[in-house]
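Appendix C: a fully annotated inverse folding record. The material below is reproduced so that readers can follow the format used throughout the book. The structure is listed first as tokens, followed by the designed sequence.
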């Protein structure tokens, strides 16, 4: 039996962010409608804390696929030749359990994460939002600029990074690729002040976005932290915002941005307004007024990875891309 291997460059070719946004909307709708399974991820932390291995299974009934993302996360890779997220998404058909595709996870993770933020921004940001602030300068920062441009008519982007050396280079790259006004800033407050949309895409363990900075009508996509002991937003920022999530179960188990204020006794589970999929299915309302502050806390879900990888697999079949490998899976009658 043959398996199609789809590499990093091919994923980028086959999965533009604006297309992935539609795929993510469908996947989150299926999850909210009970047509998908998404267990909590399992995480193996290395003893010296330098990295971890995440295991994320999922099932999508409508696509008749089951799958698994296995990804290593080594944040100290920044500035090296290695991505911070490396791994593969395995796509199985759910009829006989046959493995159909092995898809690069670095590119899937970067694109689908930004695409989900794009979906959230369409649902929660003001219609007239045009000033974007990006906190961070890595792969997610770049992908989020693209997603925000697809979600709203952005007029200007302001950039800040915890690593000042990266700010100017990142700003130049965004200007060259997107042909939009880009302003490098020297601190996070300067980037956030006057913004309509803020995306936090850092690997910070302590807050980089403060509640006292938040103006009425702001929308925030909080992306960088996905463990209980790290956060990008301080408690006041979370308290002042109407909080929406990709998955409640993941949030109450994994999201430091939510769990730390909860441990402080400042908020409870009622502070979670609902899931993005519940807005898409009409179960709950999104933004209610132009003045309220909305916050989408992204943790990343296996159904997002599986839906993205399946979409890439289908396009690769149509376009003749990828590499076929004889892999096994046939019943051996005799050895």
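Designed amino acids, in order:
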């Amino acid at each position: 039996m043959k398996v199609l291997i789809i590499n990093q460059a091919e994923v980028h070719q086959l999965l533009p962010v604006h297309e992935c946004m539609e795929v993510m909307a469908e996947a989150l709708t299926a999850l909210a409608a009970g047509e998908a399974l998404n267990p909590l991820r399992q995480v193996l932390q290395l003893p010296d804390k330098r990295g971890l291995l995440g295991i994320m299974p999922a099932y999508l009934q409508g696509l008749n696929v089951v799958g698994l993302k296995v990804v290593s996360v080594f944040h100290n890779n920044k500035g090296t030749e290695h991505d911070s997220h490396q791994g593969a998404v395995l796509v199985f058909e759910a009829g006989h359990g046959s493995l159909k595709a092995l898809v690069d996870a670095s590119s899937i993770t970067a694109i689908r994460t930004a695409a989900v933020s794009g979906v959230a921004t369409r649902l929660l940001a003001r219609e007239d939002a045009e000033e974007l602030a990006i906190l961070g300068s890595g792969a997610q920062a770049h992908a989020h600029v693209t997603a925000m441009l697809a979600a709203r008519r952005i007029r200007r982007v302001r950039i800040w990074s915890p690593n000042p050396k990266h700010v100017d280079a990142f700003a130049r790259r965004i200007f060259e690729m997107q042909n939009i006004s880009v302003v490098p800033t020297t601190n996070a407050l300067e980037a956030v002040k006057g913004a309509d949309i803020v995306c936090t895409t850092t690997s910070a363990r302590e807050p980089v976005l403060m509640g006292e900075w938040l103006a009425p009508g702001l929308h925030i996509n909080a992306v960088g932290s996905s463990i209980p002991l790290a956060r990008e937003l301080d408690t006041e920022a979370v308290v002042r915002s109407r909080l929406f999530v990709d998955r409640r179960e993941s949030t109450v188990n994994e999201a430091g941005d939510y769990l730390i204020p909860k441990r402080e006794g400042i908020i409870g589970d009622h502070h979670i307004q609902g899931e993005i999929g519940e807005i898409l299915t009409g179960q709950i309302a999104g933004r209610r007024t132009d003045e309220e502050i909305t916050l989408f806390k992204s943790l990343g879900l296996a159904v997002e990875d599986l839906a993205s990888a399946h979409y890439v697999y289908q396009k690769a079949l149509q376009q003749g891309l990828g590499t076929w490998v004889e892999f096994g899976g046939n019943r051996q009658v005799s050895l």
